[in-house]
Amino acid sequence: MIRATSRRSWSGFVLVAVLLALTACSYTADRRVAEGALEEATAPPFYVLPSPVPAGKPGDVVRTEKLQSAPPNTNAWRVLYHTTDVTGADIVVSGVVVGPDSPAPADGRVVVGWGHPTTGAAPKCAPSNGIDPFDLMEGLSDLLAAGYVVAAADYPGMGVDGPNSYLIGTSEGNSVLDAVRAARNITETGVTTDSDVLLWGHSQGGQAVLFAGQAADSYAPDLRVRGVAVAAPAADLGTLLDDHNADASGVTLGSYAYAAYQSVYSATVPGLSLDQILTPEGAAATPGMAELCLIGQGDELHAEADKLVGRYVAHDPATTDPWAQLLADNTPGAVPLGVPLFVAQGGADTLVLPAATKQFVSTLCAAGEHVTLQQFPQSTHGTIAIDAMASVMSFLSGALAGTPPASTC
């Protein structure tokens, strides 16, 4: 996986070096890295919103920038577009849209709304703002080979400056749906108003696309969602955080989530405070940790988390109100999904534990949802999305054809 080790300003010397590298590259992969490095170096102004921000409906495009580092035989754009956050506010978020450069079929291309796994929560951590903005789109080559267009939201608060929305399901889900609408508003993609929509996400992105799927009928009735696929989804948030209260992963995920909830909900939840659930040391460290990216600043982030292991949580947020209610509100499943769902889970996953995913699936089955659970005994949290890709592709094509795999409920 090729990523920048940090996000920082580049000197003119480095820019010249990158331009020279572009002319010297003789292989596609090298050329993509060099082009991506140049795009990363010049990306920050792209994320600065115009003043005033032009009015627009959810999915309306504010700005696009064609990416020269797109995979072979594709077109790709970095895009800013309107969406709606959990408070109902109109905001602008960023993302990437990529699709085949061949002529689209007469009935338009199917678009896949992709929900990415955790990269951080701060603006600089956005997947679209990197040397290779495609490297976290797990299964991208398979999706493109099948003729799909992929719309990948960064989520609110990433890329474009704004409130941290980490694990805030409505904000993330809306941004996924509106990335699909944005792809439809870029003429060259070949996505039409009649195009079918599929949703696919991993980990945090699993939560995002589950919220997108359950909100689609009410929030985006113009989109025809046909199926949802997730890998190791961050589904039951209380269980996820409980499972890792005493390790560095729990401190890291907690710092992102608790900072986001404090930022977003403090205006509407009287008395909401980090001190209600965290130790004084944990509450003091959380805002700074939430500014660090998991990719690129991982060593620094984990060093901070290691200091707090066993000394971060004072009271279980899953049982301490109002935090318990906020976690419940951001756990998918309260609203019917109503379309086929595929869930992939790794047996060797030590972050999203298999038991938690099985319990989530059982809850959906009891509600009458069509769920296909496939377990991959050797897969870890990091490998499950790739290991499951053949099954995901089969599920997506079946969902489009109206013949999804049998429910395992």
Overall description:
The protein is α/β, with parallel strands linked by helices and about 400 residues long. It contains 13 helices and 9 strands. The protein has helices at about 10-25, 30-40, 140-145, 170-185, 205-220, 235-245, 250-265, 280-290, 300-310, 325-330, 355-365, 385, 390-400; strands at about 60-65, 75-85, 90-100, 110-115, 150-155, 195-200, 225-230, 340-345, 370-375. It has a 9-stranded mixed β-sheet, with helices on both faces. Helix 11 links the parallel strand 8 (about 340-345) and strand 9 (about 370-375). The chain starts with 11 loop residues before the first helix and ends in an 8-residue tail after the last helix.
What's the helical proportion of residues?
25-40%
Largest β sheet strand count, sense and barrel closure:
9 strands, mixed
Query: How many strands appear in the DSSP assignment?
Result: 9
Round the mean pLDDT to the nearest integer and report it: 88
Largest sheet strand order: 1-2-3-5-4-6-7-8-9
Strand content: 15-25%
User: SSE order in H/E notation?
Assistant: HHEEEEHEHEHEHHHHHEHEHH
- Low-confidence parts: 1-29, 31-38
Structural class: alpha/beta
> What name goes with the CATH superfamily of the largest domain?
Alpha/Beta hydrolase fold, catalytic domain
CATH architectural label of the largest domain: 3-Layer(aba) Sandwich
Shape: globular
The CATH topology of the largest domain corresponds to: Rossmann fold
Number of helices: 13
- Radius of gyration using CA atoms only: 20 Å
Number of domain units: 3
